[in-house]
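hi! just following up on the protien thing from before. the input was this:
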Amino acid sequence: MKKLVTLSLGLALCASAGAENFRILSLGIGVPGFDEPQFMGLGISPNGRYVCGSIDMGEGYFIADIENDDIAYEYTDDPEGAELRHVDNNGLAIGYNGPGVTYSISGIETVLQTPGNYKYVLGESLTSDGSIMVGSLVATGYATYAAYSVNGEWQLLPLPEENDGESSAKYISGDGSVILGHMGSFGSPMLWIANDEGQYEIDSVMVNYITSPENEVANGGAGLYSLFPMGISENGKYAVCRGTILNDYGYYFVPVVYNVDDKTFTIYNEAQEIDEYGIGLTPSAIANDGTMIGVIGEPLTGSAGSFILRAGETQATTFSAVFPDYAEAMGFADAIGYTVPMSMTADGRYIVGYGYYCEDFYDEYAMAYFVTYIIDTEGETSGAKVVAADESDAQPESFYSLDGKRLGEMTKGLNIVRMSDGTVRKVINK
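and the predicted 3d structure came back as:
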């Protein structure tokens, strides 16, 4: 049985008391994962009012009204799970609960109508007013085909003549003029732009960039091995992708931004000071001005922290360095790769993501669980600060492995070290 729950939402401030720029979603009735769901935020509306995502790692989904402190969530009995991936400015979210669905802040679920002989629709994203949706039509054999919907009627998006196989539509701009997806199950990016009649046409520049045999010359000699779509700005100007570059040691990731207006690519392949292991940056979202967020390395599998790369800059900065309250609440989990920033508002002010949280990460008996966090990049901080290594007299206080287990002493290789001043450092012991 599916269980629908609508409750008042407590916005717990899990950093220092009085903190203004960081908060964690909580019902305030107990321990997440035990007394209340673990909320895992995946999307935030362009205006910053609504947040959506999954609960208990795919056991259901939720939508929260941050302005009025309300939340609606629903458990699922579908073996494939459920989650909401994107939400519009009116509190309508899209995702799946077995088949594709929309779900409103009032707790109303609507199954997306499937055309023809397809098995179901997989919902991915929608415009700021919810009038146009994108996703995939899923065939009986689970092959996917990029599609869009206007007023509930789903239509396939065009593909290049040389590629009539699988595809997917993942992101749409606020006004519906630009759609970003990919060819194949997890292939190269594909961009569609609406013409004057409202019909979507393939952006030939991106297709040629990806498929050209002179790719290395076309992209300025950066030697991109692959490119994968990660998001689109609300104004439709920027499509952000994760690029892979091969080197003598294997590969590393770089943000690649396509300017839809100018038809130009920018590859952010400059060495990053925050990337001490040379694993690169994976973007997860981009704002209207080109500001990006993401992780160093790969989300949850090989991450070394979250980053923000502001528009016009070439060096990214870690969340922990920029947002002191975030560092206090999520710094340890972020350092070992257990947090993922997922989405940001159109103006870049609000950031939503999820991560592993514990009131005292250094107490092996303390409860730990996944939570949704929201950062207001313009809000006041609690006064906490990050102390630079050369300004601190702090001494090592405790040692931890990469998976968070407490150690009696530093071991060979990479260690997480908590200092006496509360800061966390990554130390390689040879």
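The first helix runs from residue 204 to 211.
Residues 387-430 form one domain.
cheers
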